[in-house]
Design a protein that fits this description.
Length: 317
């Protein structure tokens, strides 16, 4: 019901037509146009009752729109403003998402740890989530009142998609993703707790760049590998931040719970570094070579790419 969404959200739907009618329209083929319209749909229906998945979708879609906006050959008027609005919303959504991940992690702990402070920590987190959710919705409403939806529609209608339509340009773009990852990995070596989260953020941006060139098979293989590393590092970061939250919320009197969370963080750190190393090794074997007749995909050793892509996609972390 529109009345349940609040006045600002109701105005979004009224301006653009009903959400159901927009979903039935043909999906645009230009990546930026498609993602921008997806984001409008998400923003229109987000409310205080939204599930964790909705917050996750909001964040990841904003990341994808930001990546595609930055890749546009000629920035349109208003792109800088919409980027600033999206960055503020994404950061607020990230605060909510952190709590959702922490609550999920707590539910996976043994019952003995729940009695040792886990239930109190969960209650604290639920209170924090309600406050952060309100701030997020306020940021969305303010952005919508200041033209966010209009600017997203303008970005969608003006998106060029020229790079994605040119096989040689796609080849060069994917080669750039691989080179940037290799540079980031080398620059961060040796990976450790102090720089791992920054490296994950850089890898996440590269993943979104790569996946924007789907259905190119190499784009999917690169994105799959980057997501594998991103997930492993994300698990470590979740345990680290949850341990810090537990210590702040519960004090020093719940040492067993904090110690257990820190132990999970330490073991996840070792795994994250190992997974990332294996991902880097596999990505180092991938190249995309362009020719005038199209794009030929090969590995560094010269093997035919389709098999290499299949192997990379099913190689376990």
């Amino acid at each position: 019901m529109i009345d349940d969404l609040g006045p600002q959200h109701a105005r979004i739907i009224a301006k653009g037509g009903s959400a159901s009618r927009r979903r039935h329209a043909a999906a645009p083929t230009v990546p930026l146009a498609r993602r921008a319209l997806e984001l409008i749909e998400i923003v229109a229906v987000l409310d205080a009752a939204s599930a964790p998945r909705a917050i996750h979708d909001l964040r990841t879609t904003i990341r994808r729109v930001e990546t595609l906006l930055a890749a546009e050959p000629e920035p349109a008027p208003g792109d800088a403003t919409v980027a600033r609005q999206l960055r503020r919303i994404r950061k607020r959504a990230g605060k909510v998402r952190d709590v959702d991940v922490h609550l999920k992690a707590l539910r996976a702990l043994p019952r003995a740890l729940a009695a040792a402070g886990g239930e109190d920590l969960a209650a604290d987190l639920r209170t924090v989530r309600r406050k952060r959710q309100k701030r997020l919705l306020r940021a969305i409403d303010e952005a919508c009142d200041h033209g966010l939806v209009k600017r997203l529609r303008r970005a969608a209608s003006g998106a060029s998609g020229s790079v994605h339509a040119d096989p040689l340009a796609v080849s060069r773009a994917l080669a750039g993703v691989l080179a940037d990852f290799a540079g980031a990995y080398e620059g961060a070596a040796p990976l450790r707790a102090a720089n791992l989260h920054r490296f994950r953020i850089a890898s996440k941006r590269l993943r979104y760049r790569a996946e924007s060139f789907a259905p190119h098979p190499l784009a999917g293989a690169i994105a799959t590998e980057l997501e594998r590393a991103q997930d492993a590092v994300g698990v470590w970061h979740d345990w680290v931040t949850l341990a810090a939250r537990a210590e702040k919320a519960l004090g020093t009197g719940r040492g067993a719970l904090v110690a257990a969370l820190r132990a999970r963080a330490e073991s996840s750190l070792v795994k994250a570094i190992a997974v990332t190393g294996r991902v880097a090794a596999r990505l180092a074997t991938m190249t995309a070579v362009g020719s005038r007749k199209g794009v030929r995909k090969i590995t560094a050793s010269g093997a035919a790419a389709p098999e290499a892509v299949r192997l990379a996609a099913r190689t376990p972390a």
